[in-house]
Design brief:
This protein is of the alpha+beta class. It has helices at about 35-45, 65-75; strands at about 5-10, 15-20, 25, 50-55, 80-85, 95-100. The chain is about 25% helix and about 30% strand. Helix 1 (about 35-45) crosses helix 2 (about 65-75).
């Protein structure tokens, strides 16, 4: 996996500098930021040729997980996603595979 730094801009005008390595930990973000953050992170991963992602949303009540998986189900770059096994975060993380460009 490539490791690069990218800037993620949120609708609220905030800009986050993040490592684009395929791992997104949502614990430090507000729930209101998640929708655009996840979509922007996917776009940044595509730009950096990172196609396997792990999104850490935590276990909690499952609300954030449902939000993340709803976003993933509608994003055109997402080939598939599923709940991680116990070695990758279990119920508290979702593994995502993005479509690779053709050619």
């Amino acid at each position: 996996m490539r490791n690069a730094t990218g800037l993620i801009r949120q609708d609220c005008g905030k800009v986050f500098q993040m490592i684009i390595d395929g791992q997104l930990d949502l614990h430090t973000f507000r729930p209101a930021e998640v929708k655009t953050l996840v979509a922007d992170y996917i776009d940044a991963c595509l730009e950096h040729q990172v196609y396997d992602l792990r999104i850490i949303h935590g276990k909690g009540m499952g609300v954030l997980k449902a939000t993340v998986q709803s976003i993933l189900s509608r994003h055109p770059a997402v080939a598939e996603f599923h709940t991680a096994d116990e070695t990758a975060g279990g119920w508290g993380a979702t593994l995502v595979t993005l479509h690779r460009p053709r050619g």
